[in-house]
Amino acid sequence: MPGPLTRPIRSATNYRQRAAGISLVELVVVLAIVSILLALTTASVQRVRAAAARTACANQLRQLALALQSYEAQRGAYPPGVAGDRDPREPYPFLAFHARLLPFLEQEPRWAEVEAAFRTTKDFMADPPHTGLSTAMPQFGCPLDARVRTPQPARGRPDQLRGLTSYLGVEGTNSLKQDGLLFLNSKVRTADVADGLSNTLALGERPASPDFLFGWWYGGWGQDKDGEADMLLGVRTNNARTWVPDCPKGPYSFTAGKLDNTCDVFHFWSLHPGGAHFAFADGSARFLRYSADDLLPALATRAGGEAVALPD
User: Fold this and answer.
1) pTM here?
2) Which of 84, 139, 143, 276 is the most buried (most CB within 10 A)?
3) Is the pLDDT score of 131 beyond 70?
4) Measured CA distances, 81 to 77, 155, 226, 235 (Å)
């Protein structure tokens, strides 16, 4: 008869070594898989957050555009982009259009504070009583820009806090031509928009300057007491070299920018990748890519007579 079946006897030491070797390989594989999953998850989360911020930003811009429409319907003209100080009868010199829209954004108490402040003094830089100057209004800023959530120190001075905006009025080509919807002392009516409300830009994105001297929602002088580069901007704005002498004269175009580059105050751009949001006079908001720069001069004018096909 054949002998009993026998199996090689492995020592406990050999078994433990083999088990340990397998566990180490498995651990490396698991760690690699987890790392890949984390990378994919992080990328997905970032995309979702970016998409949510883009949607929120467009909605805020749309609300401002609708407030502009309501203002025009009630007052017979869109608000001035900013009012000058040459007319002594002007009750709100250098007040930005954002502040004038407060009653149409369910901010009546805030508007009452603005009126009371100007009754006390027409110097909008006197804070108090012009506490709006140092008040943050997040609805006037893109959610991607954390700087709009709290007042920021102008040029690093903690005693000069400013509330910022990411949304500027489109004054047309530039402050000299005043061929857009909102500019110095503007009183444009719907009937004046001969190019059509759906083909005329009203608002666009541009973050505030790194030193926080440009981009105040409450009011401001701009480059030459015209509001330009502060709460207003043209699609071919020039640098007057008064406040930013180190930047090229221009004209500037619609292109990407950086938060630490002061020269980027002279053109529309956003923190969203690839382009920026614009609101049209009909109350709609669209995301335009930087490749649409050639179309902006036609879209920015209210009565240029150009035929423009918006990109998909």
Assistant:
1) 0.85
2) 276
3) yes
4) 12, 24, 9, 15
- CA dist., res. 57 & res. 193, Å (int): 25
**pLDDT at residue 302 tops 90:** yes
DSSP 95: B
Average pLDDT, the chain: 90
Question: Which SS3 state, helix, strand or coil, does residue 191 take?
Answer: helix
270, 188 in Cβ contact below 8 A?
A: no
Burial of 303 (0-12, 13-18, 19+ CB in 10 A): middle
- Give the C-alpha separation, 167 to 139, whole Å: 10
Query: Residues 90-127: pLDDT tens digits?
Result: 999 999 999 999 999 999 999 999 999 999 999 999 99
Domain ranges of the chain: 61-300
Q: How many C-beta atoms surround the C-beta of residue 191 within 10 A?
A: 7
DSSP 221-280: -TTTTS-BTTTEE-TT----SSS-TTS------S----TT-GGGGGS---SSTTEEEEEE
CA distance 83 to 89: 11
Cβ neighbour number for residue 109 with a 10 Å cutoff: 9
303 vs 79: CA distance, rounded Å: 18
Strands 167-170 and 201-205: antiparallel
| C-beta atoms surrounding 123 within 10 Å | 14
The residue among 186, 140, 195, 189 whose CA lies nearest residue 163 is: 140
- pLDDT tens across 17-30, in order? 554 456 777 777 77
